[in-house]
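User: Show me an example of a complex going from sequences to C-alpha cells.

Assistant: Sure. Here are the input components:
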Amino acid sequence: MVKRKGLSSLINFIGILVLFLVMRSAAANSVSMNTLFIQIGYSIIMAASLNLACGYLGELPLGHAGFMSVGAYTAAVLTTKFLPQTSAVYPLALVCGGLMAAFFAFLIGVPALRLKGDYLAIVTLGFGEIIRVLINTVFSPLTDGGKGLFGIPTYATFTDTFIVTVLCVAALYMIVRSRHGRATIAIRENDIAAESSGVNVANYKIRMFVISAFFAGIAGGIYAHQLGVLTAAKFDFNRSIDYLVMVVFGGMGSLTGSIFAGSALTIVQYLMASLVEYRQLAYALLLIVMMIFRPKGIFGRWEFSLTRLLARFIPALRGEPKNIDRLNAEAVRPDIPVYEVPADTPVLRTSHLGIRFGGLQAADNVELSLSEGEIVGLIGPNGAGKTTVFNMLTGVYQPTDGDIRFLGRSIVGMKPCEIAAVGITRTFQNIRLFKSMTVLENIEVAFQTRMHDNLADALLRTKRFRRAERGARQRALEILSVFGMQDMADQRADSLPYGMQRRLEICRALAAGPKVLLLDEPAAGMNPTETHELMETIRVIRDRFGVTILLIEHDMKLVMGICERIYVLNYGSVIAEGTPDEIRNNPEVITAYLGKNNPVNEGVGGATC
Amino acid sequence: MKPATFLITFINGLQLGSVYALIALGYTMVYGIVKLINFAHGDILMVGSYVVLFMLTTVFAAQTLLAKIIAVAAAIIFCVVLGIVIDRVAYTPLRSAPRISALITAIGVSLALQIIAQLIFGSEQIKFPAVIINETIFKIGKKPVKSLPIITCIVSVVLMLLLNLFVNKTKPGRAMRAVSEDMGAAKLMGINVNNTISLTFAIGCSLAAVGSVFYAQKVGYVKPLMGSLPGIKAFIAAVFGGIGSIPGAVLGGFVIGMLETFVNYFASEYVDAVVYGLLIVVLLVRPAGILGKPMREKV
C-alpha cells in the first residue's frame, strides 16, 4: 500500500519517461537500433495480448499471427490505398486494424469458444491457415494477393511505437487487474465454479479473446508500417509459435514476463538473424524444457512494480493512505439483493422434476419445497441422484421434465450464472476453488453480478472503479470474518487446510448474495470437531445472511442435528419427507439404507453413527 | 467431369485418404489414451521418409527389392523407437500437468524434429526414390490406373483390419482400451500403464512410418517440413471421425482425402481453406466428431 493514491501513477510515469529517453537516445543515431526497438514494441504487444488469452483465460490460441495479419493488412490497405498520404492517419489505421482483427476474433470465437481447450487450439490454428489463403485469393483485389502488398508508407517511428506499446500493455494490465480480470482468471482456474459464482463464462471468453485479437491487430499495423511490404506467408504457424514461446518463456499470467520475453527473444532473433535454424531449435528445446522443469515460465504470475521496489528502499513511501477513512467511507460495496418472498409461496419449489441421461433416469418426479429460512436436508444412498438435483437447481444440467420455481418464477432454461444472479448459489462436493487466487479474490469473483463498474471504468481507473474495488474488498473481509478467516485473506486458496477450503467455498457462495444456498456435502472429510463447528456455522449463516439452506450430507449427526426437514432420495425419486424423527423411523428409509430383512433396527441415525 | 476422370480422381482420393487414415490412427490412439494432441506425429512421417531415403541412397548401393524391404523395416523401427523415446522424455514427465503444458511440449517436439532434419539434410527438397512398383495396371479410357494407389489402399486397409483385431481381440489391445477408459483403474488392475502407452505410441508411429513411404512416393520428394501438412490434415481427419475412435479415424481419413482430391481438381488454391472450414463446421455441429462419444464433466 502506497501512501498517496496519485503517487504510484507518478512514479510509473517518471519510470516510463526515463526508459523512453534512454531508449530514444540509443535509437537516435542508429537505424538498426531504431528498427530493433520497433520490433521489440510490436513483439511485446503480441506476447502480452496472447498472454491474455493464453495465460489469463487459459485457452491455447495457435493462430495469433492470423489476427496480426488481419490488423496488418487492414491498416496497410487503408494507408496505402484509401487514406490521404500523411502520417496523421496512422493512429486511425492502427485502430481500424485492431478492430478488424477483433471482428474476425468474434466471428471465429463465438462458435469456437464453446469447445474446450484442445479444440480451440485447432480451430484457431485452422483460422491462421485459412486467413492466409483468403488474403491471397478472395481479398486479393485489396491485398494484391500472392505477389505482396508494396509501397506501404513507413509511418512507424520509435516514438509512436513506444507510446502505443505502453498504452497497449497498460490497457491489458488495467483489464487484468479488475473484476473482469478476476473473472477471467477464475474461468482458467475452474470454469464450472466461475459460472456458478455468477461469471458469464461464454461472454467473458469471447470478450477476452476479442480484446486479445484487437491488440494483435494493432501490433500487425505497426509491423506493416515498419516493413513497408506485406506478404501473407509471413504470418504462418511459426510466427504464432514465436509469440507463444514468448508467453510461455516469460510466464503465462505475467505481463512483466511478456514484456521481458518479448524484448529478450526479439533481441536474440535480431542477433541470430543469420542462424534461423539454430534459433528455432533453441526455441523448440526451450518450449520442451520449460514445460518439464519450469512450466510457469520465468516470472510465473509475478508482476514487477516500480512503486513496490522503491517503497522497499524509501520508507516514506510506505503506509496507509492519509485519507484512508474518507476512502473507506466512500467505498461502494457490492449490492446485497433484497428478496421479496410472496406470502404462502415457497422460496424454492420443484414439481415433477426429472432428468434422463440416455437410458438412465437419474432423477424422476422430484418434488421439493423450501420455505423461507428453513434448513433442509437432502439425503440418500450413494448414487441416489442428490447432486444431480443440485445440478438441475443451479442450471448445470437442464432437466428433461418438470419445473423449478424460485420465488414463484420458473428458472428452468437459465444458465448457471443467471441462476446465481437470481439468487441460488452452491458449493461443490469435490471442492472447486480458484486455486491460484487468494482467499480474498475467490470471494471477490462472486461479487460479479453485484458490481456495476464496467470495462471502461477499469481501463481508465475511474472513481467508480476504485470505489467499487475498495467496497468489494471490505465486503469480502466482512464475510471472511464471519468464519474467522480474515487473517487468511491474502493466502493462496490451495494453501488452506481442507476444512478451511470447504468454508471458503461457503463464503464464496454467500458472497453472491443468494436467497437459497445449496451445500453439497459440506462436512465431507471433516473430523468430528470440525463438523460440530460447521453445524454452528450453518445456523449462523442462516440467521446472519437470511438464506434458506438445502444441504446434501452423509453425516447423519449433522443432518439430524440441524435440519428442520429432510428429503430422502433413492434411485432418483423422493421416497420420504419429514422431520428428523419421522425420517429416522421411516421403514422405507431404513430399507433404502440398510436393505430388507436387516436385523439392525435402530433407525438411520443410530446405524450410521 | 468425365466419368474416366472422375474414376481416376476417386482412386487418387482413396490413395490420399488411406495415407491420412494411417496417420490419423496414430493421433487418435494417442489421444484416446493420454488425451494429448501429439503435434509431433506428422513429423514422425517426415522422419520415416528420410530414413527410407537415407537407406536407399547412402547405405545401399543398389535399390534391390531386398534393400527396399530393409529400408522400410528400418524406417518402421526407427520411428517406433523415436516415438517411444519422445513419449518417455517429453510427455511422461507431464502426465499429471495441465493439458496445455503437454500440448505446448508437443509443439516443441514437432519443431525440434523439423529443425534437426533441416540441420542434417538441409532445407531443400530431395527426390524420393521409387520404393513401390508404380506401373500402369489397366486403363480407363485413355487414363492409366497405376499400381501405387492400388497398393497403398490395399496395404492400408489390411493394416487397419489388423489393428482392429489387435485392439479388440488381444490382451495388450484390451489393456490399451482399459487404460484409455480409466488410467487409474487400469493401474489398479495390474496393467503396466507406461508400457501400454509406449505400445500405443509404437503402433501409431509404425503406421506413420508405413504411411510415410506411400506419402513420400506420391508427392515424389522429401523435405523437413513435409510432415506438418499431412499431419494437420490427418489430425483433422481424426477430429472429424471423432478423436479417440479408431473407426472414426479411418472414416475421417478417407473423407478428408477424397474431399481434398476433388476440391483440388476444381479449385486447387482453396484446398486448405475447404479442409479447415470442414473441420470448423464439424466441431461446431458435432464437437465429438462423427463417430465419437460426447463427454460430460462430472460436477
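The lines above are the inputs; the final block is the predicted structure for all two components together. The two ends of chain B are 54 Å apart (CA to CA).
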